[in-house]
Amino acid sequence: MAKAHKYIFVVGGVMSGVGKGVATSSLALLLEARGFKVSPIKIDPYLNVDAGTMNPTEHGEVFVLNSGLETDQDMGSYERFLGRALNSENYMTGGLVYKTVIDRERALGYEGKCVEPVPHIPEEVIRRIVVAGENEKSDVTIIEIGGTLGEYQSVMFLEAARLLKIAHPDDVLFVLVSYLPVPGKLGEMKTKPTQYAVRTMNSYGVQPDIIVARGEVPPDKKRKEKIASSSGMKPEQVISAPDVDSVYDVPLNFEADHLAETVMKILQLKTRKRTPFLSPWKSFVRTTKKTTGEVRIGVVGKYFTTGDFVLADSYLSVIEAIKYAAYKNGKKPVIEWLAAEEFEPSTGAGRGGNKVNMRPSGERGSTETSRSNVAKLKKFDGIIVPGGFGKRGIKGKLRVIEYARTHKIPYFGLCYGMQLMVVEYARNVLRLKEANTTEIDRETKHPVIDIMTDQKKKLAAEEYGGSMRLGSYPAYLKERTIARSAYKAEMIHERHRHRYEVNPQYVAELEKAGLLFSGISPDKKLMEIAELPHAKHPFFLGTQFHPEFTARPLDSHPLFDAFVRAAIKKKK
Ligand code: GLN
């Protein structure tokens, strides 16, 4: 282990969903601004080996790394705040850690010893944390432990943190992200839940060095003092983190409350740059507040509702990518969720998902009551159909795509949104009425989207986990296309997550009918981007990959940028 390497553990108290991911990303940014290389790590305590097998409505978006690892949306937040790609080592789940230990045991890796949860699980956690820091040659590693203090499954990870602290007392720091409620009837901020969270943390043998006090409003001086004294800290170790309009304000709020300086003082770190180089971030935040007019984008999906809640989290990277492009073009993004089923013809799509995919547990039959609502799409400047799986909502999505194509509304299809764009084109322009993806109809007469050859075996063997075409692949862009002029490059690399592809047998026919495959794999076998030429439509483009995963606040994605520009133009 490098000698002065520093480790910061971020844990959550009181309740979930208060923004540990954003707090972790923001602290990483503030330390990088001072000249340190920071490796952020996300630990998800659950037993899934990766995030790929979870329904987005249960767990939020599945964020894919360059390596192809399917991870948690917080990894996306880290990449966006730091402006760079992260490695597989920066993510682990409880399942992955246990699996590694058990596999090692089966290979006699413990040489006949009794293998026990403690110490072998925490030891493996520490090994992974150290490797991640070494791979990135970082100075500081920030480890966010998912979940909330007191949950049984986090115990092994807190134990790893405790052991690391014992081995390196001066180099390990704990941040507790807590919540301070202001109960409506009382009208005053309460610190007691945070005090209990600290005590719970103490019961694991660890003590917070910093408390990030989340709440509707910042804690006042008296409350900061109270939290500090009851937790054995100084008031400056309690950092205000009130609700904000935009997560991008958080680093600046932390900076105003001297978070990075306090962390550095405790870890005995000396600033490597005289003034924190935060100006690019500050000017980005300025663009988010200085917009003239808006651009209205409709996102047609199906992972929006869980019970009474709308979970924009399912499409988090898509939303952020739209925002960056809108801000870059001086517009306020207005994003509206549209449930695909609303646009289905009255018969609905019928019951039952298809069996061939990853069987998201939330898959339900169509609502069967919805009237076609396509006319309300008129009010949008642009429409996106993002990634998805299975049958539910498909008829609605196809109607939306047809409407966007025939009414010249800028359309951007992401993965499934591209595949369905090809299905729509085949049905309505090529007049192949039965054209479909074999994901929905295995026996279709015209499988314009078909399962990839190597995927067939995997599905037959019921190998669903981590088995799609995943991660970053190169693509070549044809000259004089919308894609090429957006990227201003001949070769691109983008991240994928799919099992199906455009069927090569239909490419010539589709191209003859006017659909252009402007991005293709270097071996020319896979169609990675489909578009209609400018003369036929202002912007009708779909990507087999997920451009949203590489959009960054300080570096908006070229295709989202081109799409938003087309949307703004349509508005005029
Ligand atoms: N369901 C499609 C496939 O597996 C699209 C996947 C996606 O949108 N990520 O190919």
From TrEMBL:
Location of region: Disordered: 347-373
EC code(s) of this entry: 6.3.4.2
Regions annotated as coiled coil: none
GO cellular component term of the entry, any: cytoophidium
Record field: transmembrane: 7-31
Catalytic EC class: ligase
UniProt keyword Transcription regulation present: no
Pathway the protein takes part in: Pyrimidine metabolism; CTP biosynthesis via de novo pathway; CTP from UDP: step 2/2
Domain of life: Bacteria
Molecular function terms, GO-annotated: ATP binding; CTP synthase activity; identical protein binding; metal ion binding
Residues covered by the CTP synthase N-terminal domain: 6-269
Alphabetized InterPro entries for the sequence: Class_I_gatase-like, CTP_synthase, CTP_synthase_N, GATASE, GATase1_CTP_Synthase, P-loop_NTPase
Gene3D superfamilies: 3.40.50.880, P-loop containing nucleotide triphosphate hydrolases
Endpoints of the signal sequence: none
Keywords of this entry: ATP-binding, Glutamine amidotransferase, Ligase, Magnesium, Membrane, Metal-binding, Nucleotide-binding, Pyrimidine biosynthesis, Transmembrane, Transmembrane helix
Catalytic activity: UTP + L-glutamine + ATP + H2O = CTP + L-glutamate + ADP + phosphate + 2 H(+)
Entry's family note: Belongs to the CTP synthase family.
Protein name: CTP synthase
